[in-house]
Amino acid sequence: MPAGPSQAIVFYKPGKGKAVELNCQRTKEQFSISKTNIARLRSRRNFWPITHKYICQGDFKVYEATFDLVKAWDPTSEDTDYDKFSPSTNPDFYQVKDVYRKWCLNEAGDYSGSPYNQGEAFDFSRIFQSSNFVRRRRRFWPTLTTDKQEKSLGYFLQVSFDNGLHWWQYLYAFNNLLDECGVWLSSDQLDVDTWVAALKGVLR
Predict the structure, then answer these.
(1) What is the reported pTM?
(2) How many domains does the chain have?
(3) CA distances from residue 18 to 12, 13, 133, 145, 183 in whole angstroms, order as listed
């Protein structure tokens, strides 16, 4: 079996995690596991007789933006029976729990194909100012915008009942999804405006 130190890149948040000391012997020196814990070290610094210590710190970039979400449910499950889409009036609600309620960014392309057919995966290049990003599931975080006490304003959700012509703040309960960019409308029953717009196909 191959022997030697393992290779890894580990990122820590400021003040979190443990400090790691990197040691690498000079070329042609007899290997000592107590003196070397990395396989290779490249640096532009001049090396002196003592071992230098490097501390790397960083974090992910966070962006604040407004996003249009798409329908994230199977359209064949849609129906005009109002009571069917409430957990208090439908014992089998779990079968249709996402219908009219789950709205996502489609950042990983999960809803591009059948049965969703919601178009291409969301393109972050305009926000990141680079096309060099991984298409994967992400999640929404509270806003960078703060109140007078410098506390985040949290999550802000708007809804349109006329296919995007006008927008209003969504005043009912919703959950921010933790495993993808999206929301789930969590009221026991959908409000009348949302329900009617959904049936007309103009809810956004």
Answers:
(1) 0.71
(2) 1
(3) 8, 10, 29, 32, 35
